[in-house]
Amino acid sequence: SCYSFETSNPTTWQEAKQACLEKGGRLVVMETDEEFDFIAEILRGNEDVWTGANDIAEEGNWIWEGSDHQFEDLNRWGRGEPSGRTIENCGEMYKDIDFALNDIRCNAVNDYICE
Ligand SMILES: [Ca+2]
Ligand SMILES: [Ca+2]
Ligand SMILES: [Ca+2]
Questions:
Q1: pLDDT tens, position by position, 17-63
Q2: Phi-psi region for residue 80, left (φ > 0), alpha (ψ -120 to 50) or beta?
Q3: How much is the average pLDDT of 93-104?
Q4: Which of 6, 59, 66, 93 is buried most, with the most CB atoms less than 10 Å from its CB?
Q5: Tell me, what's the pLDDT at 42?
Q6: Domains in the chain, start-ordered, CATH in brackets?
């Protein structure tokens, strides 16, 4: 894949999704542990970023937006995550837990990665 790290204009998750679509891509979809580790390594020293992970359509049913890749193929949640039930429906890579996945409110503003 080809990635675009958008770190100068933090946005909500929906805005990030739309911005990636307008570039002809999508929010990053993690297909393998190798891909996740590769991105996490690049992110060291950076801020939190949005991924395509979300459970907006159905609480607890996490998907990768714009992909039929099975979310359950990967388990990269931080300890105790996802924690936010219906309040937190979008997935970020969270710097405070070494860029593991954390569910957070979709109207938070983050950097994001398109692919
Ligand atoms: Ca990918
Ligand atoms: Ca949720
Ligand atoms: Ca959380």
A1: 999 999 999 999 999 999 999 999 999 999 999 999 999 999 999 99
A2: left
A3: 97
A4: 93
A5: 96
A6: 4-114 (3.10.100.10)
CA of 68 to the centre of ligand 3 (A): 23
d(CA 50, CA 108) in angstroms, rounded, equals: 10
Task: Give the Cα separation of 110 and 86 in Å (integer).
Answer: 20
Q: Which ligand is nearest to the CA of 34?
A: 1
Phi, psi of 6 (to 5 degrees): -105, 100
Q: Cα separation of 110 and 94, whole Å?
A: 10
Q: Quick check: 66 and 26 in contact, CB under 8 A?
A: yes
- Please count the helices (runs of H) and the strands (runs of E) in the chain: 2, 6
Instruction: Point out the ligand nearest to the CA of residue 85.
Output: 2
Q: What is the mean pLDDT of the chain?
A: 96
Ligand showing the shortest atom-to-Cα distance for residue 66: 1
Ligand 3 center–CA 89 separation, angstroms: 9
Ligand 3 centre from 38 Cα, in Å? 22
